[in-house]
Amino acid sequence: MVDAAAPSPAPDAARAPQSRAPQGRAPMSRGALAWALYEWGRNPYVIICTIYVFAPYLAAQVIGDPIEGQAQIAGLNKWAGLAIALFAPFVGAAADRAGRRKIPLGIITGFMAACIALLWFVQPGGGVLPEGAWFPLLLVIGMAFPLTEALHNAMLAGATTPRLVPHVSGLGLALGNAASVLMLIFVLYFLALPGNVDWAFIPAAPAFGLDPATFEPQRFVALLCAGWLIAFTLPMLLWTADTARGMSWIQAGREGMGAVVATLRKIHRERPDIVRFLAARMLYADGKTAILISGGVYAAGMMGWGFIEMVIYGIALSVVAVFGGFVGGWLDAWVGPKRAIQIEIGFTTLSLVSMASFQRDTMFWIFKPSLEPIWAFPYFQTLPEIAYFFVVSVIAIFITAAYASSRTLMTRMAPKEMIGELFGIYALAGTATVWMGPLLVDTMTRWAQANAPAWALQIGFGSIVVLLIGGFAILWDVKEPAPET
Of 25, 274, 322, 386, which one has the greatest count of Cβ atoms within 10 A? Predict the structure, then answer.
């Protein structure tokens, strides 16, 4: 049911004659576009704060030690992941059955944006906030983010027509990625490069009078992401349809979890290959997620990259990752989605091991090449830096490809009459072990810090390979159905 407070569809769309372009799609409504814009507003926080800008600043400047920084940030993600594993299945199962989602989504988003904005005050040695205030702030944000995702996803069916659901969903993902790249470019041009390069087309000083001496440009990205999130949440709250009535959240959660348990029991009896695939995906997907959330801190600590290098690094990898979708589709068509996933896990594993073999002056553990600049560009000048960049580009492509191939395999394996339920479990399974990767990185980094400090970053980050190998091994026995003809 459409929210009574939501405006009606645009008059032009309402008057569109039925005979017009009978084979084409109807235009997206304002509410559907507003639903997709929420992704445009929310996703940049993950790329900019969690991976490429704020987290490396936190490790290098606030915590003050790359090894301790990797361990502490992995520990933070471990606790957030455990909390997500406990409550996300409840929220995900309840969201499709509950009443209004827009009000709780708006409240949680506003609270999350306030916590993101407070990261502006996180400075070396404390200041306005106590020295360790970043930990509870990021923990709350880490728990709130999947809540917003579950509630937002549950609104999709009511935001548009069934025929347009996949197109609106795809638009949201595309907008989220595009916004992240555009914001990284903004950060590079207005915050990172000014004052550091003497190029005529670059401003002489960071925008808004920010002071690099107190790390204001790095901290400002928190305010930028918070404001961006609020600005593009408002259209969704104003125009996207919401369910007017429904069961209580407690009843919805009880019935939703009951349905999940019943479905799991049914597929365990009748479709054990689906259970094995979901178990495999939990492991390898958690490994890939751990690479993403720890990769920025690891690169900054291992290669010694600063603010500018990390922003350029983030822009390049975000663009390169787009090709992963095409690679996944090509592999699916060539060898089938199961073999495609195995190939993608294999390349991810090899790339991860290669990443762990680099240092500023070393490649593949023992090769120490000349560190003379290879080109005139002032960044990524040495052979280890360029080679590392290439290896990480490979891993970005195959991580994205594996996400695409996994969806394809789930579609092929799921019985048509259960596909909706199984994709719900598929999504929930992605949260059940999200804590395992950060736990490995935290534990192994601290162990190596005490026993092999020269290799602590590599051992901690490289331990993620255990999850990739585990997922690969379980997937080996999964029987892939023949494609429909």
Answer: 274
> Which of 230, 211, 205, 212 is CA-nearest to residue 44?
230
**% of residues, the chain, pLDDT over 70:** 86
Same domain? 389 vs 464: yes
Is residue 426's pLDDT more than 80? no
Dist. CA 216–CA 129, nearest whole Å: 15
CA distance 431 to 33: 27
Distance of CA 46 to the CA centre of its chain: 6
- Residue 172 near residue 39 (C-beta atoms within 8 A): yes
What domain count does the chain have? 2
Is 171 found in the same domain as 106? yes
How long, in residues, is the chain?
485
How confident is the model at residue 250, as a pLDDT? 65
Question: Residue 61 burial (CB < 10 Å; 0-12/13-18/19+)?
Answer: middle
Structure tokens at 202: 């670059």
Same-domain status, 286 and 221 = no
Burial of residue 198 (CB within 10 Å: 0-12, 13-18, 19+) is exposed
Q: Mark whether 180 and 311 lie in a shared domain.
A: no
Of 272, 427, 436, 440, give the one whose Cα is nearest residue 356: 440
Beta bridge partners of 367: 363
Name residue 473's beta-bridge partners: none
Indicate the residue among 203, 227, 255 that finishes a domain.
255
- Domain span at residue 170? 28-255
Helix (H, G, I), strand (E, B) or coil at 431: helix
Indicate whether 157 and 276 sit together in one domain: no
C-alpha span between 9 and 26 (Å, rounded):
12
CATH code of the domain in which 445 resides: 1.20.1250.20
Q: For residue range 144-164, what is the model confidence (pLDDT) as tens digits? A: 998 888 788 778 878 888 788
375-388 b/e with 16+ CB inside 10 Å = b?
A: eeeeebebbbbebb
Give, in degrees to the nearest 5, the angle at Cα 280 between 423 and 427: 25
**CB environment 285-321: b (16+ within 10 A), e (fewer):** bbbbbbbbbbbbbbbbbbbebebbbbbbbbbbbbebb
64: alpha, beta or left, given left = phi > 0 and alpha = psi -120 to 50?
Answer: left
